[in-house]
Amino acid sequence: MESSTKPSTPRRDRQLQLRKFGWESTRKSDLEAIVRDRNIVLSPADIKSFMQMTLKGLAYCHKKWVLHRDMKPNNLLIGADGQLKLADFGLARIFGSPDRKFTHQVFARWYRAPELLFGTKQYGSAVDVWAAACIFAELLLRRPFLQGSSDIDQLGKIFAAFGTPKPSQWPDMIYLPDYVEYQYVPSPSLRSLFPMASDDALDLLSKMFTYDPKARISVQQALEHRYFSSVPAPTKPVLLPRPPPKGESLNSRPSDFNPQDGPIVLSPPRKSRRVMLQREGPEGSSYHVDKVDDRAFEVRQATGENTAWREKPPMSIDLSVFGSRPPPRPTLNSADRSHLKRKLDLEFLHPE
């Protein structure tokens, strides 16, 4: 007897995870949809709230010695009540053993820490912190921050943003398996990259984007940063902006038009009004077209008792049927002309 179990796929695994945590029925959107929706305005308080919930979920994972290893906005789900939840634990692993080695091919490339791009096999919670910093930057910029097309290009994007690391900044860098030397690039100021961010936000970003994973701030330390206690306070989750559900739009509100208030002339979206010539219907009745639309015809009889008769008028009319030229003048032959002349002469000689 064949098994009815469906084959495992990443999409199915994710759905099973959502059902396991009772989240699938309450899921409304994800953070990526919010970042991409240009109709949504994110205030500093909104960004602070999203980041706080993200770090709280990540702190819980790290407290249980779990690495997420796939942090990105698409894996941060938003519920109907505005609560943010971490999802997609397909790459998650238990960490903490000093001798345990992992694969470095984890995370989406744009959210991958530099030590992973240099091929390290031993890492800890700092890789999740780097990805969370990329999400933070994405919320501030409303676009992905570091968009590399390959691992080498990704490192180039990182070094262009934060400067090429020096051995004093990251002593273990030269010992990594895939280390290659890059041309030195000075570090620009974070203010030039994030002009609208507050000083506290820039300070937290700089600590989360630290090159050396040993010196990088932890998730718990990030939650205790003054950025989250300063003004403005984080927006309450229920008040956070969310995109409209799929299949709806901002223009899908019910119309305020009430037919009983009187006639209102609305301009058609495209050419839909035509002047139609009157034609004779059966039994001498005539009809004319009030309005012609691309989808429907409304034919109304002007006179006559037979109201059940309807006919769709043609979309176009050949005016030659009705005579587009004036009728030709009648001509007189020679016999008619002679008869008419004699009649006129008699009337002139014998007037009444």
TrEMBL record:
InterPro entries per record: CDK, Kinase-like_dom_sf, Prot_kinase_dom, Ser/Thr_kinase_AS
Top enzyme class: transferase
EC number: 2.7.11.23
SMART domains: S_TKc
Pfam families in alphabetical order: Pkinase
MF annotations from Gene Ontology: ATP binding; RNA polymerase II CTD heptapeptide repeat kinase activity
Coiled coil: none
Bias (Polar residues) ranges: 249-258
Signal peptide annotation: none
Domain Protein kinase: 1-228
Keywords, comma-separated and alphabetical: ATP-binding, Kinase, Nucleotide-binding, Phosphoprotein, Serine/threonine-protein kinase, Transferase
Region (Disordered): 234-273
Family: Belongs to the protein kinase superfamily. CMGC Ser/Thr protein kinase family. CDC2/CDKX subfamily.
The protein's name in its UniProt record: [RNA-polymerase]-subunit kinase
